[in-house]
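FAQ

Q: What does a record look like?
A: Structure on top, sequence underneath. For example:
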């Protein structure tokens, strides 16, 4: 009855069209045709891949559902963002929001990852019609359609087989593909700034990226300020030009570690894009755009900056079987079947001592079992999960006399399966618990949570400081070990203690200015518990003196990963003097800093200016975008702060 009342019958509904492959980092334009309810895409992935799938269109939002190999829906909505639970192939179904909507719906679908950067953009096809799209023999009546010997009419070839010149190109041949927006790889587009220049939004995780646009005129000056309004969001902001090239970014140059890009001069007319994301945390934000020159106050320029220390357990990342284990860097694995195993490797020298542990992740019921195999293929140590190690399969403080590549095999007991972490560390610990800064003459009480962990405390020292440190156990049976670590990762003093007896390291001299660490472990990974720690100066070196004034134009806290170049963009003016400083927070990180122009030419660099920290000044040759490139020397990694200042 309802159909009889319609002015025009709706096209018949059709099942999802043929399955297509969804490739990563590629924005794909497609459309649901009239009467087509949905379309299926296939993608492959590995357990732990942090995927982000976005579907955008200009009409009603489409519904997307991600399904596993059993066609069970594991995520749905207008955006899909999650770590994949298993290795294998997944299906993405894109559907109309309502079966009542039967017209054509064009959309763009994109698969990305929030746990890795997008690859360097390459030239994007503009889909401009070319000779490959001009009328050809397959579309028009031409010589290829004229009668030939093979088409000579015979008794069996009648007029019903005659080719006619009335071919109508279908939509799949129409060269009118919509160009990909320049912001497609930058995040979710939220809209344009209104007349107030003030917008708000919510970031549900530190992986989220949101984009706001505005019209800019060549020669005008703008300021972007981002603040966290709720939750534990530490906002960061980046500015992109009309072509999608980054112009500047900032994390903590504003008050209270808010983000601030001040007095950025625009080089051309067009639409610019502000990207906001969380350096850490999640919550609501406010983003303000101001046109016109803003007053800036120069601050006293000191040779060092006060670091902000990262605290908490080191977060393990997914790793594949056969991957090398790195000192005190835990990784994630999974046993899916009771008879499965995973293998990891690391290198040891004769006389090395190391500690290994594998344990269940939160919510996992796995009972891990580890075997240590020497370079000759012999099992030299084997351990099941143990209660005195918090459920970990712990191999504590093993010394070896044979150098070479060792293997660690992870299996399970009691037919258990699930997710686990595995870690290896040289010495009597395998994983760090980052405690933050410990202040002079301020005793702290803390707890080493289980065997094999290492509590790490930080203290900034100047070259020439002489200090002493003391630790005492507050738990029966806990014998803490104490070590002082220089900024380059070298142990400059260490000792251990018996339970209940204070142990002191005295007359320790700092040879360089930088961040020193205090390590607390259970000797030989044999105990754990509560302790009290204190340090003080025996004599202090003179405080650094002020050396002028400066305005911060970029400040970013980041984790420098091994064998990776990190880039931080800022805007500069010809003749301007800038000062670049990288401060390592993590013992063992040896940062290297390089100043690049927009073409990638090296303008200046430094390595061990202030201890292991690079500091340099340079005069900029032209107006435009510059980059500070930071990496860890010789594969070192860890937390650091990057600062760029304009010297007045």
């Amino acid at each position: 009855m309802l159909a009889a009342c319609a002015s025009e019958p709706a096209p018949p509904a059709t099942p999802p069209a043929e399955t297509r492959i969804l490739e990563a980092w590629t924005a794909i334009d497609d459309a649901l045709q009239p009467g087509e309810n949905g379309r299926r895409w296939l993608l492959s992935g590995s357990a732990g891949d942090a995927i982000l799938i976005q579907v955008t269109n200009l009409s009603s939002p489409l519904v997307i559902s991600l399904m596993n190999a059993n066609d069970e829906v594991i995520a749905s909505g207008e955006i899909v963002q999650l770590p994949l639970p298993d290795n294998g192939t997944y299906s993405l179904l894109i559907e109309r929001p309502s079966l009542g909507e039967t017209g054509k719906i064009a959309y763009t679908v994109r698969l990305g990852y929030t746990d890795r950067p997008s690859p360097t953009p390459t030239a994007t096809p503009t889909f401009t019609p070319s000779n490959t799209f001009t009328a050809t023999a397959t579309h028009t009546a031409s010589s290829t359609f004229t009668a030939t010997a093979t088409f000579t009419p015979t008794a069996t070839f009648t007029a019903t087989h005659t080719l006619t010149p009335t071919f109508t190109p279908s939509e799949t041949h129409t060269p009118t593909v919509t160009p990909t927006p320049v912001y497609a790889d930058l995040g979710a587009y939220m809209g344009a700034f209104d007349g107030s220049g003030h917008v708000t939004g919510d970031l549900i995780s530190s992986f989220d990226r949101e984009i706001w646009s505005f019209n800019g005129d060549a020669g005008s000056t703008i300021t972007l300020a981002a603040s966290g309004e709720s939750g534990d969001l530490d906002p960061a902001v980046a500015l992109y030009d009309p072509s999608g090239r980054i112009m500047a970014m900032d994390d903590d140059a504003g008050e209270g570690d808010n983000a601030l890009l001040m007095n950025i001069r625009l080089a051309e007319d067009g639409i610019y894009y502000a990207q906001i994301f969380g350096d850490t945390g999640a919550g609501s934000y406010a983003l303000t755009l101001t046109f016109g020159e803003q007053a800036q106050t120069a601050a006293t320029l000191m040779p060092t900056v006060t670091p902000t220390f990262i605290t908490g357990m080191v977060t393990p990342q997914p790793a594949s079987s056969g991957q090398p284990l790195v000192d005190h860097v835990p990784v994630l694995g999974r046993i899916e079947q009771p008879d499965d195993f995973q293998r990891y490797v690391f290198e040891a020298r004769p006389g090395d001592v190391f500690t290994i542990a594998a344990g269940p992740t939160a919510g996992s019921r796995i009972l891990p079992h580890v075997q240590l195999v020497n370079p000759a293929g012999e099992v030299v140590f084997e351990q099941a999960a143990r209660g005195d190690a918090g459920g970990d399969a712990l191999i504590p403080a093993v010394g070896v006399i044979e150098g070479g590549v060792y293997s660690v095999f992870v299996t399970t007991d009691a037919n258990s399966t699930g997710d686990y972490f595995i870690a290896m560390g040289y010495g009597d610990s395998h994983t760090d618990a980052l405690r933050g800064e410990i202040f002079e003459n301020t005793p702290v009480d803390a707890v080493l949570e289980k065997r094999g962990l290492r509590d790490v405390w930080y203290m900034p020292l100047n070259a020439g400081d002489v200090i002493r440190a003391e630790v005492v156990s507050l738990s029966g049976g806990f014998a803490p070990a104490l070590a002082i670590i220089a900024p380059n990762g070298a142990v400059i003093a260490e000792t251990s203690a018996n339970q209940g007896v204070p142990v002191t390291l005295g007359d320790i001299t700092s040879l360089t200015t930088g961040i020193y660490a205090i390590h607390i472990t259970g000797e030989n990974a044999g105990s754990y518990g509560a302790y009290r720690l204190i340090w003080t100066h025996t004599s202090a070196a003179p405080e650094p003196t002020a050396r002028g004034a400066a305005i911060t134009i970029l400040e970013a806290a980041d984790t420098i990963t091994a064998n990776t170049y990190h880039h931080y963009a800022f805007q500069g003016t010809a003749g301007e003097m800038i000062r670049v400083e990288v401060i390592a927070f993590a013992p063992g990180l040896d940062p290297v800093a390089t100043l690049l122009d927009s073409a990638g030419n090296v303008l200046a660099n430094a390595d061990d200016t202030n201890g292991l920290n690079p500091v340099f000044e340079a005069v900029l040759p032209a107006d435009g975008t510059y980059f500070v490139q930071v990496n860890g020397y010789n594969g070192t990694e860890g937390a650091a702060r990057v600062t760029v200042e304009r010297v007045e």
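Q: Is there anything notable about this one?
A: The first strand starts at residue 17 and ends at 21.
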